[in-house]
Amino acid sequence: MKSILIGVVAALLSGTAAFAADLYEPPIEQPIAEPVQVASASGWYLRGDVGYAFTDLRGAHYYQGPGRFVQDFDDADLDDTWTAGIGVGYQINDYLRTDVTLDYIGDADFEGSTTGSCGVAAACTSRDVAALTAWSLMANAYVDIGTYGSFTPYVGGGIGGTQVRWDNLRNTSCETADPSNCDPTIDHDGRDKWRFTYALMAGTAIDLTCNLKADVGYRFRHVLGGDMFGYASNGGPGSDEGLYLHEARAGLRYSFSGCQEAYVPPVEPAVYK
Question: What Pfam families does the record point to (predicted)?
Answer without folding.
Answer: OMP_b-brl (PF13505)
